[in-house]
Amino acid sequence: ALSGFTVMAETYVVGTSAGFPPFEYIQDGEVVGFDIDLMRAIGESQGFDIEITDISFDSLIPGLQAGTIDIVAAGMTITEQRAQVVDFTDPYYSANQAVLVKEDSGHNVTVLFGDNRLAVQTGTTGDLWVEEHLQDTGILTGNVTHFDTFVLAVQDLINENVQAVVLDTPVAQRYAAENPVEMIAELVTGEEYGLAVARGNTELLDKLNAGLQDVIESGVMDELLAKHF
Ligand code: GLN
After folding, report:
1. What is the CATH number of domain 95-191?
2. Binding site membership of 22 for ligand 1 (Cβ less than 6 Å)
3. Where are the domains of the chain?
4. What ipTM was assigned to the predicted interfaces of this complex?
5. Which of 78, 125, 174 to mutate to test the pocket of ligand 1 (most atoms within 8 A of CB)?
6. Ligand 1 center to residue 168 CA distance, Å?
7. CA torsion, points 133, 135, 64, 19, in degrees to nearest 10?
8. pTM to 2 decimals?
9. Which end of the chain has fewer CB atoms surrounding its CB within 10 Å, N or C?
10. Residue with the nearest Cα to atom 8 of ligand 1?
11. Domains 11-92+194-228 and 95-191 belong to one CATH topology
């Protein structure tokens, strides 16, 4: 038998965008969160290591296509449009969109109308929702500021440069718990998050789906949900 050998586990580069608590965020200079723990658990189940790379949300799919990233784990909603250019795993989390305003601003849902100013994170489903439902319809005439990260969008809201931010509900709730902002409405979009790989990378996709199933069946998923939510 062979001795003195260690078979090195494969390392996959996981792309994320760490302004999306509790899924991925920066704590003490490190990228942490539910998606990161989930990827580690899937890696343990399937025998691979991960390396995290933190980039802007709208660079994630181009990164998969260019091969600089192997997996996207970023609370990414499975959409028809994205599924034409990347492959998604089975869904692992459900979410809607939410409207965040400054605490005690007195705003209600009409903050989405007229000449109010909004902020979104570029390339997100919230960004698209605002464009399709508010801008294209003429309901909103005010400016929409696009940020690379929700951290900056929420900061702009706190600074009163914009009146509202549209973002995923679980993340809106986390920002509201930790900042002087509040969630005033939920937009029922019925989104489901998936992990993504380059189109046609079925070998890796199969590993991720098998890992997800294992993580769910072993109870690790419930532990991670309890830890982060
Ligand atoms: N779920 C949203 C989307 O896929 C937002 C994800 C994010 O900002 N990380 O666009």
Report:
1. 3.40.190.10
2. no
3. 11-92+194-228, 95-191
4. 0.98
5. 125
6. 7
7. -90
8. 0.95
9. N
10. 124
11. yes
pLDDT in tens, the chain (229 residues): 566 766 778 999 999 999 999 999 999 999 999 999 999 999 999 999 999 999 999 999 999 999 999 999 999 999 999 999 999 999 999 999 999 999 999 999 999 999 999 999 999 999 999 999 999 999 999 999 999 999 999 999 999 999 999 999 999 999 999 999 999 999 999 999 999 999 999 999 999 999 999 999 999 999 999 999 9
Question: SS3 string of 100-159?
Answer: EEECCCCCCHHHHCECCCEEEECCCHHHHHHHHHHHCCCCECCCEEEECCHHHHHHHHHC
Q: How many residues does the chain have?
A: 229
